[in-house]
């Protein structure tokens, strides 16, 4: 019993001491709202993703793997994403805004993939 208390007591004290200090460490490490803004490189990636999406839609329409009506709908979605990006970018992109934009880009990309593979006769 004495050996156990010799090892457990210091471990217990250390664990309790760390748990008392941990919130202060986490608070000091948390970024401030302004510091959490997205860097220009990440913002450039979003812009290039939007431009790439528009290019993919144009190529799919030119190759006739999607109809012009499908392409128009997807282009409208891409324009809405571009407008949202412009609105968000005025004050700098926050991580949440970045996540929202990336999610919308991914949804339009998935819709483009679905339109290409829907087998409705719009093939080469």
Fold and architecture overview:
With 124 residues, the protein is mostly helical. The protein folds into two domains: 1-30; 32-124, no CATH class. It contains four helices and no strands. The mean pLDDT is 80.
Distinct helical segment count: 4
Number of domain modules:
2
Overall helicity = over 70%
Strand content: under 5%
- Gap between N and C termini: 81 Å
Indicate the radius of gyration in whole angstroms.
25 Å
SSE string: HHHH
Give the low-pLDDT segments.
Answer: none
SS-based class = mainly alpha
Which key terms come to mind for this protein?
124 residues; 2 domains; 4 helices; elongated
Brief sketch in words of this structure:
The protein has 124 residues and is mainly alpha-helical. Helices cover 77% and strands 0% of the residues. The chain contains four helices and no strands.
Helices and strands, with pairings:
Elements: H1 2-29, H2 40-62, H3 68-89, H4 95-116
Helix pairs in contact: 2-3, 2-4, 3-4
